[in-house]
């Protein structure tokens, strides 16, 4: 059965991803173990976190397809689709701190909408469920939404960069971590608001997660590199003209990404580590806890 799953995974990755041969093979190789965890835990909701560019969306959709081959209906819900609208973030920027105009950190998502949609999917009452869609090119939520069709899923793959992130202490957020924080948030107002919102996410969202998985990048420079490489494939939708612009954009994510990576073996049910070539290695739960 494992070889069948690996073959299915490799075939799908070859058709549907931009991963190279060794990258596809390494991700396909860990798929049976992840499938086994889903079966053993009987999880309904899997939280899949990780720095930008690590491949969360690819892995979530890969598992959805492989599960379908086994008669299990899974759906992927992306945290990115729950960003506040541009207007809502503008009001947040005026009321709290200007950096909240930039999507990304806890506090820039419609957490209430996400929780309501998850509850609808879990309850099975999807008759009036309409999921949002966020357009990153326009940096705004699309007016057209996605009415749910068909029965409720057996498994929900909730993917997003800060999914599963444990709270930060006051000490952890006291000092600027990069030049962008020093320049944009010299008094720490933004950092403290992010910390408070992160506690709210952990309190309200984490209880719904049966499993927390984390995709760990080898270092921050590779997070920037991989996000820049993703940008190259966007064509006319490309937002950044150089890697320094990508680094500046990702500065808002850096603190929590480093925090998650440093602590992941304490809180994640499984850690999916990536090497500098974006090849995958899975640490099993027994090695994490």
What count of domains describes the coordinates? 1
**CATH T-level fold name:** Rossmann fold
Q: Which radius of gyration do the C-alpha atoms yield?
A: 19 Å
Count of helical regions: 10
Q: CATH homologous superfamily?
A: P-loop containing nucleotide triphosphate hydrolases
Strand residues, percent: 5-15%
Ends apart, CA distance between termini = 28 Å
Going by CATH, the architecture would be: 3-Layer(aba) Sandwich
Alpha-beta classification: alpha/beta
Query: Would you state the CATH class?
Result: Alpha Beta
Instruction: State the major sheet.
Output: 6 strands, mixed
Strand order of the largest sheet: 2-7-1-8-9-10
The overall strand count is 10
Shape: globular
Assign a percent range to the helix content. 40-55%
Which residues form runs of ≥5 with pLDDT under 50?
none
Give the SSE order as H and E letters: HHEHEHHEEEEEHHEHHEEH
The overall pLDDT average reads: 92
Give the structure's gist in a few sentences:
The chain has 289 residues and is an alpha/beta fold. The protein has ten helices and ten strands.
Q: Would you mind describing this structure in some detail?
A:
- By secondary structure, the chain is an alpha/beta fold.
- It has a single domain, classed as P-loop containing nucleotide triphosphate hydrolases (Rossmann fold).
- Helices cover 47% and strands 13% of the residues.
- The protein contains ten helices and ten strands.
- The chain has helices at 2-16, 21-41, 56-69, 86-95, 111-123, 179-184, 189-204, 220-232, 243-267, 285-288; strands at 45-50, 74-78, 130-131, 134-135, 140-141, 146-147, 155-159, 211-216, 270-274, 280-283.
- A six-stranded mixed sheet has the order 2-7-1-8-9-10, with helices on both faces. Strands 3-6 form a two-stranded antiparallel sheet.
- Strand 9 and strand 10 form a beta hairpin.
- The longest helix has 25 residues, at 243-267.
- The radius of gyration is 19 Å and the shape is globular.
- The model has no long low-confidence stretch (mean pLDDT 92).
């Amino acid at each position: 059965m494992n070889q069948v799953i690996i073959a299915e995974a490799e075939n799908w990755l070859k058709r549907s991803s931009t991963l190279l041969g060794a990258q596809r093979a390494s991700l396909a190789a860990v798929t049976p173990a992840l499938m086994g965890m889903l079966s053993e835990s009987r999880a309904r909701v899997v939280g899949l976190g990780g720095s930008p560019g690590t491949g969360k969306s690819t892995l979530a959709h890969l598992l959805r397809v492989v599960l379908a081959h086994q008669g299990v209906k899974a759906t992927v819900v992306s945290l990115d689709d729950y960003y506040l609208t541009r207007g809502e973030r503008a009001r947040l920027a005026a009321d709290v701190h200007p950096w909240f105009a930039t999507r990304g950190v806890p506090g820039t998502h419609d957490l209430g909408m996400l929780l309501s949609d998850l509850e609808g999917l879990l309850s099975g009452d999807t008759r009036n469920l309409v999921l949002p869609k966020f357009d990153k090119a326009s940096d705004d939520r699309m007016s057209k939404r996605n009415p749910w069709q068909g029965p409720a899923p057996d498994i929900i793959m909730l993917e997003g960069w800060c999914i599963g992130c444990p709270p930060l202490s006051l000490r952890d957020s006291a000092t600027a971590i990069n030049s962008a924080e020093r320049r944009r948030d010299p008094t720490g107002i933004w950092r403290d608001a992010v910390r408070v919102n992160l506690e709210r996410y952990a309190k309200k969202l984490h209880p719904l997660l049966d499993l927390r998985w984390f995709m760990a990048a080898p270092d921050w420079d590779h997070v920037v590199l991989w996000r820049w490489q993703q940008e190259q494939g966007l064509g006319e939708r490309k937002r950044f003209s150089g890697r320094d612009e990508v680094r500046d954009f990702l500065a808002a994510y850096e603190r929590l990404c480093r925090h998650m990576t440093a602590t992941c073996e304490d809180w994640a049910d499984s850690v999916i580590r990536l090497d500098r070539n974006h090849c995958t290695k899975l640490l099993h739960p027994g090695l994490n806890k």
